Amino acid sequence: MSRGKDGPENVDATFAEIVADLRADGFGLPESDTADTAGTAAAAGSGAGPESEPRKTPDRPAEPPSVETPPEPGWRSGGTSWDTTMFSDDPAGDDEHYVPPEPPPLPRPKMGAFLILLLFLAGLFLLILPGAIGVGPTVATPLGILALATAIALLLLRVRQGPPPGADPSNGAQV
Question: Could you give the 3-state DSSP secondary structure of residue 143?
Answer without folding.
Answer: helix
